[in-house]
Amino acid sequence: MNAFKIAALAATRLTCVAALGMAAAPPHAANAAISVCIDKSSPAQAMDHRVIDAVAQEQHTSATVVPFDGNAGGDDDGFDVKEFKKLASSRCELVLGFPVEASSGETPEGTKATTPYGETGFVLLTPRQHDASTLDKLPAGTTVAVTYLTPPNLYFAKHPNIQADIRPDDEHTLASLFQHKVQAAMIWRASAVSALADKNHARDYCMHALSEPYSRWNVVALYAPQNERAAAAFMKSVADLQNDGKLASLVQPFATAPQKSGIILASADAPAPAAAAAPTGGDTALYTSAQADAGKKEYADNCAQCHGDNLEGMAGPALKGKNFASPKANFHVSDIFTIVSQNMPATQPGSLTHDQYVNIMAFLLQQNGMPAGSTALTFDAAKSSKTPLVYKGD
Predict the structure, then answer these.
(1) Secondary structure (DSSP) of 259-323
(2) Model-level pTM greater than 0.85?
(3) Tell me: the pLDDT tens digits for 338-350?
């Protein structure tokens, strides 16, 4: 489940356990048991079990499931996403159930991703008697619950008709809705499905897929380079299940089957698709080098604990890279600055001075490859800037 991977958002909400010192999984051979890691704390784990059982049957073999607890060690220090590399290289051949943001395809360093076996994302939950399928259709002044540091936090800036009620986790977000403290909620689909398994909730609430930046995610299996054969066999089996019409029932209700055009067995050596061209406006110089230098210290003092010393993400999402600033997401400087200045730091939202927020924003722009200039960024300019925020790195 992540996504920002505010990214990870679902993926960034996972907490991995460290590898247990097991020997690296051997190369996959025909009819050999498939070794997979599945997060036992995931609300969608039933889907992953069904998929791997069906894949094993397709391959005339069995599956060995290595459970890990995605909630283990969840504290203010978050987790190091490099733990996924350890899982994929030393505990199992495939790590199932990993969400990859649809527009970027980014995976944790040292891992690769299979083609998707499901499409999922963030959804809007509304009471049936006041049903609205999109954010724009919600009445003005509607209060919408959202989980802290997930992508839907970004949507309020573009939808002034709704107000945010930020909750620490999905459980509290759902409780806020079900206890009628808010009129709607934006949440990860698997969490919504689990909650709607309760007959009363299913009767009273509707679920709608969101069509917003960073709302669409692919469910993939992660693997280490040495397990390329196991990944290829998995992808072939998924493609067969898709072609036979069986995949859709395996992933429901937590996801939908990918479009058949998405089931492509690409060679690991095939060239990567060309990156989308960044809008010309992304080259605009909005800040000075002095502001970015000051922002580096402000970031270290107020942000690094959650977002990592190098903006790589920890308990909070990464604030640098393609997942944070994708051209397809169409975010502007003002969108991100509004979140930074209103919701951060997590412990005391809005507690920094205007200059501190501006300097932190300048540092974020610098770290994402946007150029410095001779004119200083101001609080009002940052809050109103329609300059696209696009990552300029490799």
Answers:
(1) PGGG-----TTSPPPPPPPPPGGGG---B-HHHHHHHHHHHHHHTHHHH-TTS--SSSPP-SSTT
(2) no
(3) 889 987 887 788 8
